[in-house]
Amino acid sequence: MSLTDDSSNVFQSNTQTAAPTSDVFDWNTPDVSDEVINRVLTAGSNSTHSRERIAAFFMQPNVSMADAAAFLRREYRIGGAGVRVHNIDHSLWFDGNGLRIARGHDTRTPRAAVLTYEDAANRISTLLKNGQYASAAELTDAKPNEYRELASEIWHAYHDMSEEAREHARWDWRCFCICRIWTAAVPGRSLLTMFSLRLSRS
């Protein structure tokens, strides 16, 4: 047998072509599924009744995605949260730039999914249209909740003002009007009952 016989040479050169780039594991590719992203969005922000507020905003006619993005930026503010999907922990961080979602307990990873508020607005709009954002009861209560929160905010502003400021700004009339909206949103509650409840807590 010849030592130069190619058929017996165990040191064959590797002529296999390199794997395509798409087949190579990429640490910079997000590993967060659409299901997880949607679950995070349907949780709303960390504030109470966030889902109802978001739903109420998107239920308005002719809402532009630019306005919706600005609203979500105000609604989410700055904070974080966690969600478990299929027994896997995911973390969420949101600030003025948007939302970051990642597996585990830290969003500071190149594998996090990054959403601008424009992205989030489009996804939430689609989820609402498909009936996947909130329950029927929450959607029914979205507008009444908005009225209640607005009335509460104005009442507290009125309560904190001096008599002189109230007279100057004519807050008695404005507060009366907004409280009428509140009572219209909650059947069975009279304006007198609403004022009595507020005054008893003062």
Q: How is this fold's topology laid out?
A:
Elements: H1 34-42, H2 50-58, H3 65-76, E1 79-85, E2 88-95, E3 98-103, E4 113-115, H4 117-129, H5 136-160, H6 163-169, H7 171-185, H8 191-200
Antiparallel strand pairs: 1-2, 2-3, 3-4
Helix pairs in contact: 2-3, 2-5, 3-4, 5-7
Question: What best-fitting shape do the alpha-carbon axes yield?
Answer: elongated
Number-wise, the strands total 4
List low-confidence stretches: 6-25, 184-197
Series of secondary-structure elements, N-terminal to C-terminal: HHHEEEEHHHHH
Number of helices: 8
Question: Roughly what fraction of the amino acids lie in strands?
Answer: 5-15%
**How would a textbook summarize the main sheet?**
4 strands, antiparallel
Helix content: 40-55%
How does this model look, in words?
The protein is α+β, with helices and mostly antiparallel strands. The protein contains 8 helices and 4 strands. Helix 2 packs antiparallel against helix 3, helix 2 crosses helix 5 and helix 5 packs antiparallel against helix 7. It has a 4-stranded antiparallel β-sheet.
Question: Care to give the gist of this entry?
Answer:
This protein is α+β, with helices and mostly antiparallel strands and 202 residues long. It is built from eight helices and four strands; from the N terminus they run αααββββααααα.
